[in-house]
Design goal:
Length: about 280
């Protein structure tokens, strides 16, 4: 059961859009919002996390207390954690301490994805986190208004033919119940005339997917296509109105290219659809 949603917030950064997008999930009874902040010495000073002074910590903690107070006034169950250290390490350490959790991270709509957003912090979090990571896209220019909140009404779960991808089922089911979402499983065949073995694999994958989601209380539909996996998933989002994609990575250094190099990166950059990623 999902008990904690870990929401990384940069000190003095914007946090409200993430809360608004996830409000139905965050307001559920039994779900706690954990605001996580990492404080570091100024860049280029040569100082380490252990050199962060009490004044810097207290200033950051004061900012997080103000957010916590505002959310409590709105009926959220919330706490904050502020630690000195690299953001990715602080985030994943907090997730490791709360196994029944999900990390929700904003990314920014720059071409190729801002290096800070997906190339370093988020990529490292996805590679090392022991819990799923939900990527939410926002404009890179803080002067621009955030996009209209998505409703997560149509969730697309990308299956690669292995059993590991089905480990997403409990987490997708949590989101589906919170938002009243429909769930569709997609399997992409190679870009060639379908062979009997390919169709047998698809039947097996879909049967396993239906069974896994049914055990979580969710009925699913299926979608079989062929071609490049990234292009097919992106096209399905555009043409069929999916507003959340769930997929897995295998936690390799640099992160499995099928997930971050093409599917998730293309979806977040080009279509703006949030992506839920979990290690297989």
């Amino acid at each position: 059961m999902l008990r904690h949603v870990i929401l990384p917030v940069e000190p003095s950064g914007e946090w409200r859009p993430s809360v608004e997008w996830l409000r139905p999930l965050l307001r559920r009874q039994g779900t706690e919002v954990v605001l996580v902040g990492a404080v570091q010495p100024p860049f280029g000073t040569g100082l380490t996390a252990s050199d962060v002074g009490d004044q810097i910590r207290e200033e950051a903690a004061g900012y997080f207390r103000s957010i916590e107070s505002a959310l409590r006034d709105e009926g959220f169950s919330v706490r904050h954690v502020v630690r000195a250290g690299a953001p990715d390490a602080v985030i994943t350490d907090e997730a490791r301490a709360r196994p029944e959790s999900m990390i929700a991270m904003p990314t920014h709509a720059r071409r190729g994805l801002a290096r800070l957003a997906l190339g370093s912090v988020a990529e490292s979090v996805i590679r090392t986190a022991t819990v799923p990571v939900l990527l939410l896209r926002f404009p890179s220019d803080p002067a621009l208004p955030p996009p209209r909140p998505v409703t997560f009404q149509k969730v697309l779960v990308a299956l690669d033919g292995g059993e590991l991808a089905l480990g997403m089922a409990p987490w997708v089911a949590e989101l589906a119940r919170a938002f009243g979402s429909s769930v569709t499983l997609i399997h992409v065949l190679p870009a060639r005339p379908a062979l009997a073995a390919d169709l047998e694999t698809s039947d097996r994958v879909f049967a396993a997917g239906r069974a896994r989601f049914k055990s979580a209380g969710i009925e699913v539909e299926t979608l079989l296509t062929s071609g490049d996996p990234a292009e097919e998933v992106t096209e399905a989002c555009r043409d069929r109105g999916f507003d959340l994609v769930a997929c897995t990575t295998h936690g390799r250094t640099g992160v499995a290219r099928w997930v971050l190099g093409s599917v998730a990166e293309e979806i977040v950059r080009a279509s703006g659809v949030p992506v839920l990623v979990a290690r297989g």
